[in-house]
Write a structure and sequence with these properties.
- 19% of the residues are buried.
- The strands form four sheets. The chain has an 18-stranded antiparallel sheet. A two-stranded antiparallel sheet has the order 2-3.
- It is built from one helix and 24 strands.
- It is mainly β.
């Protein structure tokens, strides 16, 4: 059994804004909210797992969890920038929410043979339910100049609550799959999952309203879908294998709702993937090359600082991913990755635009050297470069996040003391202290700024 309690105090930071067709040229530390907007949350989470082996071939597992979260989350966020003056109009939202969630999973795994064919089967049931209400304040906030910010002294948190949300989400799923092996070289997998979900959302506006009014106004939506999955692996030789898979899914966007309180259609995904893997020179050189094609229907984007979402339409991502890792010498190892992604919005107001936050080209190279000689045995050095192509920042492609590269490094020393092991490690992230952008929430006012140069040290001692 596990139990976790967290008492957290944080601050929402939506980053900087776009100016013209790129991120505004302001210091990466620029904060466009209000310093007094501090989020406080208490989280209680407990879980229990039970397993039982009937014999060497059959096993059952059950896991149940309970989650309780209370949060007060004030946020001052921008929504309209005057690009001539740099004045950003802002809104204030504070949600006082309490949520209880239950989750349970029961599954059975087993293996058996029929007519010389080996079967590995999995079957189970999954449940998730969340129940909660939000009592919130929604109001206009004072504007701020992104170049010369002056923070407000107004206490909007003392305003009466004027916006109430009641939401219930229950999700059930049953699943089954069977993996068989033929001729010791061909592996086939087939199965599926049936999901049925209920989402009820109620909204109430006005200082004279309450959570009870939101609950009375709740509208319920039911969704159900069968999602098949299949896969194949063929290994003609020990060093080479080909694989392919197909899967559908009913996504969690089933919980999203618009500003009118209507629940949005659930996100539905469909993916094809195929490729090959190689293992050469006794495992010293490994590679994986894959092609994938993924479509997502009913894509939704959350509104920063608000509980609402906006429907975008259908999007498609397809591309190639390549991973190569090798032991060049007894001490030197390399890892190289490359991805080409063609991501496009297929339906909706932004049809034909590139999918936001997705670079066409990205890759990395990482090298590590383990000193093979005494008395420095146990000492390791590593360094790498991670690169991304430019990418759109919003569905309308009105601005672009620039290409970027991040340099990381590490040094580690491992030593055996009797039967124990001591490890001391220092990691450096963004060693060049470049200004990096992590992505956006799909709008011009939420450009996340990556970490500056940072060093993290750790000591690990295992008996």
């Amino acid at each position: 059994m596990d139990f976790t309690y967290k008492d957290l105090e944080t601050r929402e930071d939506y980053g900087i804004v776009a100016l013209g067709n790129r991120p505004a040229r302001v210091p990466r530390s620029r904060f466009l909210g209000e310093p007094a907007d501090k989020t406080h949350e208490n989280i209680y989470n407990t879980a229990a797992t039970l397993t039982h082996a009937f014999n060497d071939d059959w096993r059952a597992r059950a896991r149940f969890s309970y989650f309780h979260r209370d949060v007060r989350d004030p946020q001052t966020t921008g929504f309209d920038l005057d690009e001539m003056t740099g004045v950003l109009q802002r809104g204030y939202y504070r949600g006082d929410a309490s949520t209880i969630a239950y989750q349970g999973t029961v599954d059975v795994t087993g293996r058996f043979n029929t007519y010389g064919i080996e079967h590995n089967v999995l079957a189970g049931w999954e449940y998730y339910g969340s129940f909660g209400g939000v009592q919130s304040i929604s109001a206009d906030a004072s504007p701020i100049n992104i170049f010369r910010p002056q923070y407000s002294r107004e206490n909007l948190g003392s305003l009466p609550r004027n916006f109430f949300i009641d939401q219930t989400n229950e999700w059930n799923g049953v699943f089954f799959q069977d993996q068989i092996t033929l001729f010791d070289k061909l592996h086939l997998m087939g199965g599926g999952r049936y999901d049925w979900a209920t989402n009820a959302v109620g909204l109430a506006f006005g200082e004279d309203q309450s959570l009870a009014d939101a609950e009375a106004a709740a509208r319920k939506v039911n969704n159900a879908r069968f999602s098949p999955r299949a896969g194949i692996v063929y290994q003609p030789w020990e060093w080479l294998s080909f694989y392919g898979n197909y899967v559908q899914s009913l996504g969690s966007a089933n919980r999203a709702f618009g500003i009118d309180g209507n629940v949005l259609k659930p996100q539905i995904g469909e993916q094809f993937e195929g490729g090959f893997k190689t293992t050469l020179f006794g495992g010293r050189l490994n590679s994986n090359v894959a092609y994938y094609h993924l479509t997502r229907q009913n894509l939704a984007v959350s509104v920063p600082g608000q509980p609402f979402s906006v429907a975008v339409g259908e999007a498609r991502s397809q591309g190639v991913e390549v991973d190569v890792s090798g032991q060049v010498t007894d001490g030197l190892s390399l890892i190289l990755t490359y991805a080409y992604t063609d991501a496009e919005v297929l339906e909706g107001d932004n049809k034909g635009n590139r999918l936001w936050n997705v670079p066409k080209h990205s890759g990395s190279i990482w090298a590590r050297y383990d000193v093979p000689v005494e008395p420095l045995h146990g000492l390791s050095f590593g360094a790498g470069v991670f690169v991304q192509d430019k990418r759109p920042g919003d569905p309308a492609n009105t601005f672009i996040l620039p290409s970027q590269a991040r340099v990381d490094a590490m040094v580690r020393y491992r030593s055996k003391l009797m039967k124990s092991r001591l490890s001391v490690q220092l990691n450096a992230y963004n060693l060049a202290d470049s200004t990096l952008f992590g992505g956006t929430l799909g709008d011009r006012n939420s450009i996340n700024v990556g970490i500056p140069r940072m060093f993290v040290g750790s000591i690990n001692y295992a008996m």
